[in-house]
Amino acid sequence: MLRRCFNCDIQTTGRHHVVPVSLGGIRAIPLCIDCHALVHGAGTVFRPDLIRAGIAKARAAGTVIGAPVKATPPIAAEVIKARALGQSIRAIAKTHSLSIGTVHGICMRNNENENQPVR
Question: Alpha-carbon distance 32 to 62, whole Å?
C-alpha cells in the first residue's frame, strides 16, 4: 500500500520501525528509502546486534533457524520407531527438526509404511 513518507511526503511503500522489532517494537512509520537511510545514517543500516537479538527471540519461540539437523543413525532409529507408532511424517519432522523429505526418505529406505500418505 502506498503511503506518504513521514519526512518528505513522497509516496512510498517503505516503513521504519521506531523501536526495532527484535526489541519488541510493533509500530512503524512510512519512510521512503532515502529518508530511511538518513534515519540509520550512512553504513549503519546493517545492525548485527539487532540481527542476533532477533534470531535469539525467534529461537526462543521455537523457530528453527539454519540448516536442518542431519539424520544421524540414532535420529533415524527414532524416526522409524515414531512412524511405526503411527505418528505422521509432518509431526515427526517437526519433533526432530528435520525436513518432511528427510523423514519420508528414512521411512522409504527402511521399508516402513511405504504406502501411507504424507499427513
Answer: 33
